[in-house]
Every structure is written in structure tokens, then in C-alpha cells.
Amino acid sequence: MPLNAIEKPGLLKLLKVTVPHYKPPKRKHLTKLMDQKFEAMVVIVKIQLNKIKCMSLTTDIWTDSHTTTSYLGITAHYIDQSRLHSITLGLAALDKSHTASYISEKFEDTLNFWEISKDTIIAVITDHANNMIRAVKDSFGHDKALQCYAHCLNLLVEQALEDSPNISVIINKIKKIVTYSKQSVKDSCPTRWNSIFFMLERFLVLSETISRALLRLEKRPELSVISEAITLLRPFELATKEFSYESHVTASKIVEIYN
């Protein structure tokens, strides 16, 4: 909710009726409080990070589908007093072409702001994008660039689904049906394979109701294929979830899950 919502006539009228003696703060006052809170938290986080001798970073680029603005997210991960901690260091807007050199500049800006020495960075995890890998190597060194294993699983399953014509046809049918019933059926996300898993899983649960309503996919063989696909994809979903935790170390599980 934007800060100017506090000054909109509808909300002011509602507050006047429900809590007539309450005087809501002005937008400028809220902005001032937020700035003060941010400055105070920056000091606390800098003190904490200054104590850390070793940390890793995860970074990724996300694009807002509504504004088409891209952002570079950077998160620090470290162990303190035998506990794994994660801190979001920044979400920088990218207003230029996403070249490796431009991304490197954003890395430098973030490290300088938080007064983090590159000597404390032991690894930087990214996806498989060439510009991201090059930016990490240029900024931190070739031995610091690691690729996200969960993303590897994502690419593997996506390719497997694309190479399976039978399931691809059914998935496309379900996607069309989802556009008519988004209230109850989960849609898929093109950048996350497990969203397809959740869509198939939810669709199978609601298949009888949906088939009666839309008269699509009434063939039992297609439902059997969906059921088999869910059984096949479930271990990959569990592995993806296992590698997505922030509360405990996951790199040591790669060999175990792979086997």
C-alpha cells in the first residue's frame, strides 16, 4: 500500500466514522519515520556484518511484469554462533542493459554501501545466465562463482517436460482450462518448473469438478498420465524445496539427493 493511501478521502472518511478521535499521521511523517528506521537498521547490520569473517552471497535478477523494471537482488548468508543467518543487502533497479560490467558495478556499490570486504566472500551463487556468471567472476574471482543447484534441477525438469510430447500436450490443455478457473486451480510460472507440478497436482484433485464444468479432459487416460507425471515429479519437488531453505546449510546435501 502506498504511503499516500493515508491521505485518501475514502480512508479518512472510514476512520472518521469508526474511530472519530483518531488522527492519522501525515504521509511526510510516515516517510520520516521509515527513513529513521532504515538508518538505524543500517548501523545495526553494518556492525553485525563487520564481525563476520566468511560469508556467501546469492544473487538473481527479477523483472516486474507490470512495469518491466528489472531488479538485482543480493543476499548475504553467514554462520554466527552456530546459526545460519541471511540478510538481504539490496534490491537494485537495473535501468541499463544487463551486461556483466553493469552488474559488476551494482555488486561493487552494494559491497561499498555495507562496507563488506571481498576477502570475506567465499562464494557467490547465481543462475546459469552468462552475464551473471561473468559479473561474479569479474568482481570476485573465477573460483568464487557457483551455480545454483536448485536452478539446475529447474532446467533439467523443464527440458524433460519439453521433450515429452504427451505430457506437454496435456499441460497446455490444463493451462487453457486454468484461465477459466483461476479461483481454484493454480497456474504455472514459466520460470519455475515446480509451479507446473503444483498445477498438475491441484488439477488432478479438482479434475471431476472441472471436467463436468468445462467438458474438457474427460478421457481417463489423460488423467492417468497426469497422475503418473505427478509421481515422477514429486521427488524433484522435494529436492527443490530442500535446496530452497535459508535456515540450514544445503550444499552438503547435493551428493545425497543426487544419489
Automatic annotation (TrEMBL):
PANTHER family hit by this protein? ZINC FINGER BED DOMAIN-CONTAINING PROTEIN 39, ZINC FINGER BED DOMAIN-CONTAINING PROTEIN 4
A GO MF annotation of the entry reads:
zinc ion binding
Name its cellular compartments: Nucleus
Q: Which organism is it from?
A: Macrosiphum euphorbiae
Output the InterPro entries linked to this UniProt entry. Answer: RNaseH-like_sf, ZnF_BED_domain_contain
Chain segments annotated as transmembrane:
none
Q: Name one GO cellular component term.
A: nucleus
Q: What is the lineage of its organism?
A: Eukaryota, Metazoa, Ecdysozoa, Arthropoda, Hexapoda
Annotated protein name in UniProt: Transposase
**Protein keywords:** Metal-binding, Nucleus, Zinc, Zinc-finger
Q: Where is the signal peptide, in residue numbers?
A: none
